[in-house]
From TrEMBL:
It is an enzyme of class 5 (isomerase). It comes from the Bacteria. Substrate binds at residues 9-10, 41-42, 73-74, 185-186. Its EC number is 5.1.1.3. Provides the (R)-glutamate required for cell wall biosynthesis. One of its GO terms (molecular function) is glutamate racemase activity. It comes from Paenibacillus illinoisensis. The active site is at 72 (proton donor/acceptor), 184 (proton donor/acceptor). Belongs to the aspartate/glutamate racemases family. This is Glutamate racemase. It catalyses: L-glutamate = D-glutamate. Keywords: Cell shape, Cell wall biogenesis/degradation, Isomerase, Peptidoglycan synthesis. HAMAP family: Glu_racemase. Pathway: Cell wall biogenesis; peptidoglycan biosynthesis.
Length: 260
């Protein structure tokens, strides 16, 4: 039996990374696990989140998966090292795509704006990442907690979201920025709305493609082609409710419509 690749997040945000994997690896089978009992993570204490992540990881490995993708920047920053020490399967984490964003703007001298959860931004892992790659102190950061709440409610209202982005960005000189980094996996659900608010020259990137490329490298998976089967993803949640599964399926369908 072909073992599944597991994707884990506090809620539906990690579906943005799974969606990328579905495009690149249509012949693989996947398990998506959402910690719906404890979403969101970004507003909780570090110790709380670590405990929840370890509990979910135990539930996931009981499904005999061949790898775990921690499709959550906050969970990665707090627990990925310990998860790798606990389990003998590959554990792939996420981090905000600060390094490629800085490199993209090195010649132009434009700034980089990182959107992430407050908890991610407060962690030493994030600050060490910025210190390592940001030679010219060109990286700014901002939490967008409301987006996680709206996303979990499947609230993708374009007018409300665009107005929210305009309020958040009102005090910034957007002409000085070259790239916006979406450092929370929930945020790409709103990338097409953010695109309408930002100047045309500002690029929007996230860590999904890099994470899937890392997964392919660790599992020695080559490029695949084919149509995605209907039952390619098994959905599980800590809440264990049918409503959780239906919400995850609806969110994945929404990402499909965004990519068309």
């Amino acid at each position: 039996m072909n073992k599944k690749i597991a994707f884990f997040d506090s809620g539906i945000g990690g579906l943005t990374v799974l969606h990328e994997a579905l495009q690149q690896l249509p012949e693989e089978q996947f398990l998506y696990y959402a910690d719906t009992l404890h979403v969101p993570y970004g507003t909780k204490s570090a110790d709380e989140v670590r405990g929840h992540v370890f509990d979910c990881a135990e539930a996931i490995v009981r499904e005999h998966v061949k790898a775990i993708v921690v499709a959550c920047n906050t969970a990665t920053s707090l627990a990925v090292k310990d998860l790798r020490a606990r389990y003998d399967i590959p554990v792939i984490g996420m981090e905000p795509a600060v390094k490629p964003a800085v490199e993209m703007n090195r010649e132009s001298g434009r700034r980089v704006l990182v959107f992430a959860t407050a908890l991610t931004l407060s962690q030493s892992k994030y600050n060490e990442l910025v210190s390592r790659v940001d030679d010219h102190h060109s990286v700014d950061s901002m939490p967008l907690p409301e987006l996680v709440e709206w996303c979990e409610q499947l609230d993708f209202d374009p007018e409300k979201s665009a107005a929210y982005f305009r309020r958040k960005l009102a005090d910034l000189d957007l002409k000085s920025y070259g790239t916006v980094v979406l450092g929370c996996t929930h945020y790409p659900f709103y990338s097409h709305i953010l695109r309408t608010v930002l100047p045309e020259h500002v690029q929007i990137i996230d860590g999904s493609a890099g994470t899937v490329n890392r997964l392919k490298h660790l599992l020695e998976l080559t490029e695949q082609h084919g149509k995605r089967p209907e039952e390619q993803v098994t959905f599980l949640s800590s809440g264990g409710q049918l409503e959780d599964q239906e919400k995850m399926k609806a969110a994945l369908r929404y990402l499909d419509t965004m990519s068309k």
